[in-house]
Design goal:
The chain is of the alpha+beta class. The protein has one domain. Helices cover 29% and strands 31% of the residues. It contains four helices and eight strands. A hairpin with a 6-residue loop joins strand 1 (56-61) and strand 2. Helix 2 (21-37) runs parallel beside helix 4 (101-115). This is Type 4 secretion system PilS N-terminal domain-containing protein. Residues 1-20 form the signal peptide.
Amino acid sequence: MIRFASILALLLPVAAWSQSVEDAARANAALALQLCIQPHVQPAARAQMFRNAGFGERVERSSMNSDTTHYFAAPADTVRVELYYGEMPEHCIVSSNHLGVTGAAAVLDSVVPRLYPGFVRQVVQGAPNSATGQPVQCVIYQDPANPIGLEIGVNAAGGAQGCVENGTSLFYQTYRV
């Protein structure tokens, strides 16, 4: 019986496809961005959405006021999220050391129009990509109906200044004031 089980185990198909780190980062960034920019969600409920999605979590709570910061990490640390709420306006920032701004722009294009269908896509030209020689394009979506409205965009992370392709990305949301 043991011999039969061993032979059967050898005959079972083995998954031949594995996800690359960049593909995992892209999928996790899309999920994290969707959770971050989902409209009309209270911060504590947003934190629970990340937990439910399987993100690891570390929390810092201030002993002086209501400031709370959740740090979430996707599996294999492909994406990190900082969710803050308290005395200052809420922010939810998604970053990755495994997904450049070019890949991140595609993530924005797949997520933002579904949640904010009236937003207008803008492109910011960056420095030339050393791999392609073409200018890097960072994407920003803006609310055209409100001159100080919401803006959702991506830049390079890791201390980079502006729109450069360094293999990292930082998704942000802010109000144009």
